[in-house]
## 1
Amino acid sequence: MSFTLHPRLAAGTFELGEILGCRVLLKNNAIFPWILIVPELEEGIEDLHQLPPDQYGDVAIAIRLVSQFVSDHFHPEKLNVACIGNQVRQMHIHVVGRSTDDPAWPGVVWSFEGKKAYRPTEVETIRAAWELHVG
């Protein structure tokens, strides 16, 4: 199977690594701790219920690992996890740390206009923490 990351997902993220057949990407918006999980699937599988049981299990474990990382590293008050894909149909799961003091609270991050790019050193710190987390 040939896998190609959707250009829109690639353009706004930094790759942290791969786990259980999924790409793990840091969204380039330092306002929110926001990670995308992109299962390497054949085209046409867009929603979680379409996954074969073994892949569903792997994706669920990946979600748990990423959620634990966001919780441990960024210390948000709440985690939001969603597989939406209205604008980019390639399956991807958002794991977003939220806090009552973030500028979009209590609204959704998807439509929040604010952006703050990560500095390269911040990305490297997060990448190193991720690598330690998944060991």
## 2
Amino acid sequence: MGRIIAIDLGTKRTGLAVTDVLKITANPLETIETSNLASYLSTYFSKEEVDTIVLGYPKSLDGTPNEMTPRVISLKDRLGKLFPEKKLVLVDERYTSKMAMQSMIAMGSKKKDRKEKAGNLDKISAAIILQTYLEKL
């Protein structure tokens, strides 16, 4: 039984989150440079069993595609070729960045720390995307 990994794709940084082995909880994993994503995933998959890749699917507030939507579709196609044995799923990611920021505030992060630790925001957003997926299982 493999884990599920979630990806919150960004132009520069990408947030990652992963489930526990029982697929119960979503945990922030890492924030990496987007250009290193495929390499990072290959290494991670060689060490950890992963069944499913969940991609945050960006949309505008009205539900229409936004400027990141084509990049996510392109990434999905690329990952499908690189890792054909993995299930690929798109999950609506509207409001996840806002929810991640609210989580950081609730955890007591100061405004200065939130600005300096933008990478935390990315992996928390990925965890929210993953939790959304888990709730639908």
